[in-house]
Records
---
Amino acid sequence: MTPPSHPRDADQEVARLLAEQDLLARSVSHDLRQPLHVISGYVELIAFKYRDTLDPKGQQLIHKALAGVERMNTMIDAVVGLMRIDTQAPWQQSIDTTALVDDVIAQLQPQAQALGATLERRMLPPVPGQPLLLAQVFEQLLANVLRFPGEGPPHGLVAARPVDQGVRFEVRDQGAGIDARLHKSIFEPFGRGLDSRAGTGMGLAISRKIVELHGGQLGLDSKPGQGSTFWFTLPS
């Protein structure tokens, strides 16, 4: 009979796997960025060498090419971030989600004021989790309230209610709503269901992975013209 492994051996194996995953993330980041550096370098060289002969249309094309490179760099950051989420260890820390959401709303307040938007929350229960990761989920969902408004000023509400063996958090808006055919695709990496011009298409995919890492689920209730409710459950 094979003797049971020592806890220290298991810890060492986990540490080794996490180190390998981090190395893979850094390698992917480097390998994807390298050709982008070459492309941007040549485009900038063309812009400099032919600056006196390029007409406004040519200058515009140069600007679009460099903007595309920058957008690709942003998307690589999002992919690497998604890869590294699994490196977080299990936790037992109890989080004051009321205070956490207050901090997120405060960070978004300048943007909300510029749009005439209102972000508010009801009293929220404590849950076990990793505060920085859960703050990222609330920030993504509340930022979407501001990013995709309806006809009137954006309004977002964070609420929670008990469900079987856990808590269901909800972020409700009064936006344009989302067609049911898009409810699945927007949670996929690079999902463009909401608006192809905004963000990287990774925010909801990262949020879903964070919630699943906490043992919960992330979903959406929405109909066109009736606003949206993004919700996620967490064990309590």
Note: The radius of gyration is 22 Å.
---
Amino acid sequence: MVWKPRVTVAAVIERDGRFLVVEEETSSGLAFNQPAGHLEEGETLVDAVIRETLEETAWHFRPESIIGIHLWEHPQKEETFLRVSFKGVVTQHDETLPLDDGIVQALWMSREELAAQNEKLRSPLVLSTIDDYFAGERYPLSLLKSLLKEA
């Protein structure tokens, strides 16, 4: 078998001490996560995080910086994830949009509320990314380069 990590993106959006998160159905039950998902063929990482945030929360997301690039191996599955986490703001909510399959709801939660639900977090990346956010980790979007053909 050829090993290759799954490339994912995540949006970290803070407003008044609370973070936009999703409650989603997983194979292990309901879990909390940042708006996040897989990079699709032909899209940039920035385009992916904008799309995933809209699909999962119905919020329009504007990335401002990169918080970090995290490599994580799922302890029960033979899967490794390379996750690029973006800090940004939401600019508009479109209540007419349906949420992605498996998303129960989008909601705003504090770090403390998320930590109290530790057993229901999708991965340890949820809190570690928020901790990186509070630590001031910020990298310019210009760090990301794309040589993809323009659509």
Note: Residues 23 and 105 are 5 Å apart (CA to CA).
---
Amino acid sequence: MSELRGAAEDVPLPEHQRPEGTDGETVRAVGALSEALETIERARGHLYGFHQLTGRADAQLASAIEQLRAAGHREVADRLEHELVGRNVLEGRWTFQVVEEYDDGYYLPFREHERRVRDELACGRRHVFESEMKERERTRRPDGTPERFHAATPDSEPG
């Protein structure tokens, strides 16, 4: 770890500082939009989880059907195979189609709009709101240097 650069240099990196002329309301609003995108990212992860879990269940179903056949329950196995194997999870769609529709119709446009707003209103800078929160909440020693684990950047962290 490098030495502390000094209290005067213990500031966020430029890409995390409020652009000149940008007011607090704008920083909060852009931060709220970015937070909404973070929630969309989580929702997308759950959707991919749904996609993968459904695929796993299909493989388990195939195994169960074979076990039922092996146990002498051909009629039950045939019914399950006919009714469930290859079945759509939504009208006309398997899970990969649901994921693709979500990605193309909602996720990608949302992500593009969030980036465009950041470009227009915050010079493309990410997490300015959080960076300012970190600055407000960091603990400093009486000489102005940050307490350990309270530095602005890894390079300014005391050893």
Note: The mean pLDDT is 91.
---
Amino acid sequence: MKNFLTICCRELAHHFFSPLAYLTITVFMGVTGLVFWGAVRQTLGEPISPQLLLFHPSPLWLMIIAVSVAITMRLIAEEKHTGTIEVLLTSPIDEAAIVLGKFAGAFCFFLAIVAPTALFLVVLRSFSVGLNSPDLGKIAGGYFCLMLVGSFYISVGLLASALTRRQVMAAVLSFSAIIVLFFAGYFHHLFDEGPIRSILLYISIREHVSDFSMGIIDSRPVVFYLSSTALMLFVATRAVEARRWKQ
């Protein structure tokens, strides 16, 4: 546990003391703010739930993908490139503590980036006339879904970083894998009722966020994201462990 916390704190310190981190936060908030403002303008005078304006626009999720890739591409690849991974592997720290510590640090930083988007609803409520108070339960459901998706994306990026020593290659691998999973759910309507359609609906982020942001908490997406995250972390741990045996 001590090693896990040490690595987690180290990752958090690296993020929060890096100018690139604050640039990432600024760009994310700027782009998502413009997306939210555009969605509000397009729905002026129409009855629509505030949480749908916040969680449904596709550009928001594309930014989440980009941020996840940016956060994770250096996690282990940089350690390999600089040679510090050798120090970690020859110290009394097991591979699971390394992987879980880096995952926890990256995930906490991810939450710090996306949490301020809640201010969009506060601003909307403050400057809108006749707008009902947002349903906090549905908003909490939307953020819960965002956390599940974010943890999965972070784990995919961490695995990609564990498989290569080049950050650019890690970014390409993780972005390619995540973008395929993200858009796969959009094609379920091309298939008739059957296993393929069921699988695409099962992994469809659009369907998940729609349900969660309406207050419908389905256990199946929760199991999917948690089990997928655990699988990615397990494989990443084995990838790091394989490097120890190569020494």
Note: Residues 219-246 form the longest helix (28 residues).
